[in-house]
Queue: 4 jobs
Job 1
Amino acid sequence: MNNILKMKNIKKSYSGVEVLHGVDLELNEGEVLALVGENGAGKSTMMKILMGITKPDSGTIVLFDKKVNIPNPARALHMGIAMIHQELYPIPEMTIAENLFLGREFSKIGFVNSKKQERETIQWLRKMGIDILPSRKMKDLSISETQMVEIAKALSYGSKILIMDEPTSAITESEIMKLFDAIKILKSEGIGIIYISHKLDELPQIADRVEVLRDGNLITVENMSDISKQDIIRHMVNREINEIYPTCKNRIGEVVLEVKNLKRKGEFEDISFDLRKGEKLGIAGLMGAGRTEIVSTLFGDRKPDSGEIYIFGEKAKINKPSQGIKRRMAFVTEDRKLLGLNLMGTTKDNIVTCIEKRESFLGFLNDRKTSAIADKMIKQLDIKVMSRSQLVENLSGGNQQKVVLAKWLLTNPDIIIFDEPTRGIDVGAKTEIYNLMNELVMEGKAVIVISSEMPELIGIADRIIVMSQGRLSGILNKDEFSQEKIMHMAAHI
Amino acid sequence: MKSNKGTIRSKIFNRNFIRQTGIVWAFIVLSGVMALSQPAFLTIPNLTNILKQISINGILAVGMTIVLISGGIDLSVGSIVAVSCVTAAYFGLAENPYPLIVPFIAAILAGAFLGAINGFGIAYLGFAPFIMTLAMLTMARGLILLLTDSRPLFNLSRPFINISNKFFLGLPNLVWYFLIILIFGYVLLKRTVFGKWIYAVGGNEQAARLSGINVRGVKWLIYSICGALAGLAGLLLASRITSGNPRVGDGYELDAIAAAVIGGVSMAGGSGSIIGTLFGVLILGVIQNGFDILGLSTYYQQIMKGIVILLAVFIDIRARKNKSKSLS
């Protein structure tokens, strides 16, 4: 295989602190190199340097056997380097064709030749193996389709190196398969792909080699076939994580939540299940199956059209989040930045949001008390901050998630709902969250977990409910767990 | 990553404080320039005049700050001032002696009522703040012009005129009212649970709602408070100009917004402080005073005001960009 990229001995410091201590990275034609490491290991910094967003302090970049400087992202694109971001930012009101050719429209004397653009777009999309009308607007596409368009766009620029940042974090299993097929097509075209992902289980399916970074150092580069998941984890965290999914001896008791025939038009119907004390109930299903809709209805973010909810045997009418909270429920939402955190606030502000009133006196804040409480939670959950006054927007994903958790734990809930709690979080932090869930159920609380990662659900849940297209497809007990069964139920009713 | 003095540092050097200290320096430099170039500036009468001039706008700016932090805006305060100016004057006419408490209650209630309508439209009917308060701007103005047939009320009682103009400890009462409202605003935003909720709603409304905060209630109350403060401002204005004039207040909302923005309040919501706004008010006052001393027409002042606003926001944007660069 021909080598297309050699980054050698890359060093980078921010404000006097060295974050990359001389890291190497090599990429060959037609291969997928998985780049793994905990948050803060240096992956994004390396990619920012490759993308021309920032410059290395020292080290060399050799592109197609020529030493180069990459001054800015526009030049990087012309040099053949493109990135598919974790958070996609297409222009919603524009069509696929318009987005694809943004900045290099086919035009004569200022008028855009839409027909030609659309024809070209179809070619590129077809090359990826997808069949979407180029006249569709970006805002009407699913995340998976948007992603495919982004990849087609990169292809159309003649990119030889594609960086994919957590590409499978927001798409369903079948869409992941489509993505992998597309990646295989890219490989056959000779394109090299740097694949950043926390989902280590996926790597054997798609990656040829894997490079592990830790604390700004290159730890190892191996062929995918020569290394096991355990070894990768060990390299990433430098400690044995004996159980990725820690077990616990939770005792499952009485029914705390009962849902009967819950229905919301267009979202879900005929939903009935129960939740027991000390239990971890998983909810599986494809995206769009209605999982988040159901739990947010339980919490009070939405009103059901019909059906009943019983909490500790008592019929409950929960129409607002504050009522859900009063009923001792907590909702750790799916998108922490969008729904869970006030990014303009400090760590302390976010942690004490729900209990501020409780700790107040005649409406006045009790700063001393809330500061002490915040510090206690920071210590308890091991949240890595400089101080409670640090703004949450500057924390890593894992620490942000812990802040959201801290906020909810302070309300002393009996039922805690987790919606995709470990999305975009590295292995070390994930295990901390699993341990936390175990602690909660050992204390006798009940936990509902929504997750799109089947290994995760199977690893942590006591029972799993499978949703499919707004209906309950099945309920599995622990001894019945299998990925095939869940997949089957998720895809059919 | 940063050294251990990070703890104290991060407490002091959070976003608001940086903006505030910048504002303070700007104010000091500005005042210094004025004092040195114009001997008339640093005299007691002139300084007292500045304080008198800024008090009305200052009270409006406090209300506006609260609304802006919540992520909203209130374009109707100028018109509400007009309504309450006339209302207060009506209850302060020399020929109809009401106890002084009456115009106070009437003016503040009138303002609160109009503000509550704003709040209802925004919080419960879902109108965008810009639209709702814009509509209120025109409706309230129309209403008061209609009721007064566009004619001001004169001959107010001496006690009523004293409300703003009598001196107390060397300063006109008007200034003391401003100070009280400043303290009120500061305590509300920084020392109460409600204040925390205002910042939470402005920072991320969805997250605030999901945390159990009554977002609608908070919004409704904020606009009511802003209206009430405009009501108070109207009364003080009536006393100051010794008439109930339905044409006053034109453009007052822009001055209030300008003061808040210069003081570091973000139009996006979620950040800002009363102290910052205070300096914004002071800077505007010093500039206005400077132009008056120099005898420049108010049109020059308007141009200058616009430039100052752009300058302040520009500096703020640069400061934020630099901050995020160093942290990434």
Job 2
Amino acid sequence: MKPIFVFALALLAGMQQAAQQKPPATGAPKDFVLPAAKRFTLANGLPVTMVPFGQVPKAAIRLVVAAGNLYENKDEVWLADLTGNLMREGTASETADAVARGFAAMGGELGINVGPDNTSISTEVLSERAADAVRKLADVAQRPRLPESEIERVKGNLLRNLAISKSSPQAIAQERFAQLLYGEHPYGRVFPTEAMVKGYTLNQVQTFYRAHYGAARARLYVAGVFDAASLESAIKQAFEGWTGGKATDAPPLPPSSGRQFALIDRADAPQSTVMLGLRVPTASHKDWVALEVTDALLGGAFGSRITTNIRELKGYTYSPYSQLDAHPAQASWVEAADVTTNVTGASLKEIFLEIDKLRKEAPPAAELRGIQNNLAGVFVVQNASRTGVIGRLAFVDLHKVGPDYLSTYVKRVMAVTPEEVRRIANEYLTPDKMSLVVVGDEKTVKSQVTQWAQ
Amino acid sequence: MKLSLAIGTVAAVIAAAAPTDVAPSIAEASQTPAAAPAAGGNRLRVPVDYYKLPNGLKVVLSRDTTSPTACVAVYYNIGFRNEPKDRTGFAHLFEHMMFQGSANLGKMAFIRLVESNGGLLNGSTRFDFTNYFQVVPSHVLEPILWAEADRMRSLDIDIENLKNQQEVVKNEVKVNVLNQPYGGFPWIDLPMSANENWFNAHNFYGDLAHLDAATVDEVRAFFKTYYAPNNAVLVVTGDFSPDEVKGWVQKYFGNVPSAKLPGSPDLKEPRQEKEKRAGRTDPLANRPALGIAYHAPNRLTPEWYAFGLLDEALAQGSDSLLYDELVRKKGMTGSVAAGINFGLGNMFDYSGPMLWIAQFFHDSSVSSDALLAAIDGIVEKVRKDGLDQSALDRARVKMRSDLYASLEQFAGFGRANLLASFALFDDDPSKINQLEDGFEKVTPALIQKTAEEYLRPGNRTVYVVTPGKTAAQGDKEAR
């Protein structure tokens, strides 16, 4: 905080003589209590979590299934997406349009979201229809029609999404960055080839569905306003008969490969999209919370060091950010920014300078305290919604970080010391192990980035 | 793992002045307001405590103790519609300057004050307002109110700050428009094509040369002209003591001097009689896209309520008529995205003429004319017959559910947004509690009549994005 603050004061000193007023003090923080969750497990092993929350008469329901891209074979990229999308096309007893109208009449919509680790089937409906929505959602999960008649159309939509995605410089950078970090592992495969998608058959979809959908691989969450007794009985009725799904079977991670570099030409681009970062320990590791604090201080918060430097002092970019991206076995840290083409090298230099500085010097206590307060406050805000609560609970379950993770989170954030931040940066954010992707105008950018190209 | 979704949300980014990196939290976080339906009825009752300070500042307090958080939102009655003609993008550039310092808060100090007190913040520039908001733990309200008052009273910027933010804003335009496939589609392209009046039809993100031309004196003059308490509303939602907050509002905002405001420009649009066609070649895109726009009925009129339900029935969700026809039955596109004030707000938070816009991405094997013909098949049927009872019933349920969702959005900010809009444009934030009635009163006959008039082919503008090289690029390569 110090260098920036001094800079600001120096500017002001020239313009005005009057002493600045200090902001008034804050009040005492109010108690924040996490909403109490009721947990139970059905006879078939499906864990259920119900959280009464808020006063608006709506309920959010989310079924999380270990059926993400992680479980695709090498030549099956986006088969999980195709399966998820085809699950929108009706159930054994209802056509797709009837399913859509059914959810809409409850004030909701069927959402099927395929992620790297999980696929979520979810909806958010008016409270009086919560039990009906659970039944409908259970029908979609357990008895999808997976109609042959719709597969070509659904594949066509995926192909269009693929093509459009790959015209965006951020997506191109993300694809290569994931490859550099994770190689042949599914986390390294962001996009399929067109030929792959065109070749998928209904049989492959059915096989993927049978292997990865079932009570043994799923968890159900409900948050909001609902009648607990009738909802619990609806859940039991709707899900108790669900069998199937093999035990989870995530492929092992390849070893980290050290610094790799890629420059991808985007002729005449006015900006370069840069991503740099590396694999780091994940949420179940003892250093995770300290890593989160370090990330926020370095590049995650708006007032963070890198953002202050390359945006607010240099004006190189609009939207720089760093973030941690956690999978159960591994996380990654990335700093990403779209910077004006002619300052691509200058931006990278500043980013690495900030990383190096934090690895050498513990941050001032006041700067760290500001970041800790920010994380603690944002944690409260993120727990202040139905979907926010479900997201947190699902995170705890995915990463198996234990039932007290949420209740002790703020305390652990506040306990991180300046020296610990320096140690974390030094131990995990090692520049010579960071991979670097630049998507930009090669003829202008190449000479600016040679020093990092091995 | 599908990254293409970003295309649909590009528009939201014009908003982000400051912390783009809070966006992930914004997307995830929303909150439950204490806005339960009144006992015995099905209507929302959002608490509304509305008053004005002697200097003209409108104040709305809306208490909600669901979580120990609060939202502070200051809305100024100046949007990008009425920025100076030779300074396109100026209103948005100015929004950035509001984060650059005030008498008692140096550069970065405002942002650090909010963040180090556990808060999130942002600002945005829209058609008819510029807003600044913070979501914070409720015990830090006093310094946040002090800080908002400080920058309302005493923006303090210099040439260095301005140069810095000119670069930042140019980078924003590059990342969201110039280096992006479909950049500016349809949220800039369609207003520019469909509207006749310059105020509604210029490039509000700004010409890069215009952005560069802005001077410190212009920034100061803009501040002096528009950023006065009598041109603003302050909304506080969340878990606070009303008496305490009223005391702070008086203490910190009470002595901010008011200003003589300029008259409002004439924003009127003529009735559109003939369909317009526009489009461009996009060298960064690899699939065609189609946007359509119709001038919507005037806000808060019976026809406008009816049009809101038409939007729900036609284009919102996978049960909608256009989704069923274009996606499920005809397989011409994979999704339908549409709305009044599309990409830049919702059907409540504006005040002048407004478009209903819908966008479709498709393959080159489907022509835009074929897609339009399929759209016409649905639209013409609704113009003639209106909606059947089940579609109308679903539209009302979806509207109610969407209204709750927008009130809950981002820890009270969604509610503050509606309260601010109704205070700023209608001098009556309690209108928030009359919306459900307005939608309930819509009759099937009004639906049909509204569709017949507002979904006229003559009221429509069609915008086509064609992938491929521009003429200039072709020349360059030929040489």
Job 3
Amino acid sequence: MSVRRSTSPLHAARAAVGCALCAALALPALLFDSPLVLGAVVVAALATGAAAGAGHALRRALLLALPFALVIALLNPLITHNGLTVIARLGEAPVLGQVDVTLEALVYGVVLGLRALALILCCALYAAVVDPDEVLRLFRRVSFRSALTATLATRMIPVLQRDGRRMADAQRCRAGAAPSRVALVRAVAAGALDRAVDVAAALEVRGYGTARRPPRVRAPWSRHDLAFAAAALALVALAVGGRMAGAASFGTYPLLHGSWGAGAWALAAAIVAAPLLPFLDRRGVEPRAAALAAAWGRR
Amino acid sequence: MTSLALERLTYRYPGASAPALDDVTLRVEEGELVVLAGRSGSGKSTLLRLASGLVPHVHGGTVNGEARVAGMDVREHGPGELASVTGSLFQDPETQIVMGTVRNELAFPLENRGESPAAIARGVEEAALALGVAHLLERPTHALSGGELQRVALAAALVGRPQLVLLDEPTSQLDPVAGDELIGLLRRLNEEWGTTILLAEHRLERCLTAADRVIAMAGGRVACDADPAGFLAWAHDHAPALETPGARLLATAGLGPPPVGVKQARAVLRSAGALPVDGSGPALLRAGPVTGRGDFASGVAKSSSPVPPARSASRSALRLRGVWVEPRGAPAILRGVDLSIAPGERVALMGRNGAGKSTLLRHVAGLASPTRGKISTGGRVALLLQNPNDYLVHERVGEEVVPEALAAVGLSAFADRHPRDLSGGERQRLALAIVLGGSDVEPPALLCLDEPTRGMDRAHKADLAVLLGRLAATGTALLVATHDPEFAAAVADRVVLLADGAPIADGAAADVLAGGWYFATETARILRGAGGALDPDAGAALVRAQLAEHRPEVRR
């Protein structure tokens, strides 16, 4: 997965704002156990991705994350013995001992699965809408090498995907029997190592080894920067405020309990609406790189 | 000031039995444009990597002797420090792109130097304009074609206006038009900015006219260090594989001195009275189409029929009818292609970067399905993709393919070697053996090859041409996508020129390759297409005929 540059208000916002929005969107998923709030974060991430023109990437991430979330949801009731409402007695099992599946453990598994799903989608949203080059530029003033390492790790994913596709095509062209999976995995791993060495050499000859502190680029805040920054702040306020006010409280042990009132629904609706509202204003939308270049040009 | 100075330098890669550079002493002065010539494995790339500091700092190994770049000792200063005075471009541009967009890629070296935003913006714009990539600035780097990547990587190497530019086969992925443009640009940089350029290249005919000096490497040593004319004279006597087609044409015709480029060759012919007044001199036309095999593949029989056999054949190895490839949300790549290839026919597919050549081959081989139209084949289609490394997945060459297939490509002696230890040309042959298979699989009706000579020296190309000729003689049709007109002339009966996803020329090789400016061999450009001569031996035969007509004593 890699950033797909398109002309959406979110792509037009600076990387710091994009990062902040994704982090703010993930915050309610970390602070709340309520399936309603967790579901709202999932919906918000998908809707934000779709509004930014990255719906395909988010959909793919969803399909990849769903089995993972399902496994978490199914495993939890098998290994957790908390909860008072037994819904199935599965008897003795090696390692696990007596397995009594409780409703509470099952629901908590669903909560954990939903949380994993929400966090994965927030990460996918970040990967799809925030330019890693700008993130590098943002953080290199603080820690150049760490920022570059992190950014290149993101960059290697599409590169290795492309290598993998090429290799798969080549294997389809073989005349004889297909090679074993072990041989293929070994070749792919060796290729990835070669690729890493090549990238390291490229970085060296571009002067990375002696990188100086990069110049600060003071680009003016655009309407999209301001709008999404406000959305991120609103999400943080909603999450922290809602948590402190006890809105959408939810617990599973020993018995299920929680708040499903208007406050909880309002909080969920606000979490979905906050990141979407800035998309209503599409004036001055341009890819971020072009905006940055224009800012440089003005200097 | 001296840009590069080596004094009795010997370098050995870790674990290597022989040195890659052996007792090399040379100096490259500021403002020189030096071409590094030599066969694969002669030490050209190692020399460039030494000058960029990758050797020994990234690759390891042992260095004896002295190496200085702009006064900096290479052993003490790593590639990061040397990057302040050098710009480097190596063979595979895909491995040299590190940022997400073209603009960021060009800005990266300047940011690393701590340049001001204004200097970065200006540097990026100027480099983009100079390399013709200004329209790509906002494009993601993962969406660029091979040729575009090459130009972007070169722009990134030049953006900091380095004192010394190190280029390892920069034209290997470029079409002839872009390749010529690039050499012209390097000459301009050299003349206007005084940039020192060290350029390793196999297609010498493309760059000798721009060079001040040629250093020929052999076995890690400097075999020749002379001006281009002196180098060609040396090559004629000591390294025929490095001779340019133009020099070989004149030498075979008994004329001299060896010409550096088309203009000089024509001047020599003109002064000898052997140049047709126009492109279709009467004496040469009477000689008819000639298809010598001298330069690349002597001994390979090739049809000289001016009419492509496919048009008269009832049975086809390949038949495309109205094939369209229209990706969602992107312009069409193939636009209603009609093409037939007869069994045993040898077709070269040429065209600019992005014309649709690779896409056509992928669809013919069944790796993808066309949006519209029909593709039918006379049997199995084998496809050799651009990068032979993608086929190599085993620890031993012998495990990759059955012994008889290995023998067919002349690699039986390497059965116990690791595939990655083979040279580029040997890997290409091994990959060819993998796609062809042994007697346990049906022989292919059609063999498609995508840029098979990328990065190959002239001798390896000749070997490949011979191998393909033998294969075609057994009835397997060939469809070779290539940017190399000399190789196309050596292997093909017929040339299809593709532009913007559709064939714009389809005819006998002698017709298509003799009539163009860019998609033409050097021999054809020297003789302006006369007699359809494409290679030096055919050209020399025509020149001798012309001389004999003007000077009857030549006949005797």
Job 4
Amino acid sequence: MDDILNGLSIILIFSGLIFFMGASVGLMRFPDFYTRMHAAGKGDTLSTILITAGMAVQVLSPFDVVNLFVAIKIIAIAVLIMLTSPTSTHLLMKAGYDDGIDPVTSSGKGEIIDLGGPFTKKIQSDGSETKAKKKIPRKKKSAARRNSV
Amino acid sequence: MVAGICLFLMMIPIMCRIIIGPTAIDRIVAVNVIGTKTAVLLIIIGALFDNVSMFVDFAIAYAALNFLGSLAASRYFNRTRPAYGEGSSMEVKGS
């Protein structure tokens, strides 16, 4: 039984390490803020969950009540990180998007285009929507809004 | 344990990203990743010292504080657009 638990924990921890290596290489090598964010968010979350699950399995190996509670705490860490890490990734991505960081496209360095998503849609006073296809200079816009307020 | 050493070695490129990161939010992302990995590393250190029940509490606190820190930083960089109220991105659709 102990051998099975040990093998399971080793498999979980090393798959987590492989995912973290992916996250780390992606964070180092990708050309762009958004792609780096992609690598960091996914790889970090999944590798953390895998490594903590492996440690929880390993803690269980002399099985008694205290070790069971410690394992439950470790699983609680995994759940906490599973909830908070995508949230913080989303918020940081939104902050970068609002800051107007330019993505890298296939035709060189691109600019943020307002695609008319739910967060950037503007409705004029007569109720007609303008899907603004123009390239908005976001910093100027926010500065103008700040001045008007 | 080998896993802890591997984890520490893989933090080094992320540290490089903190140093050379072109934008500020890149650096915040890298700090967030390192903080999450430090919470995991605390559990591994606890297993090395045969004292996991103590280090697990540190790891929980570290993960929660790391989330709060990155959330505050993203709010700080997002403050040019008001989050709620007049001119907010949430309210444009209904008005």
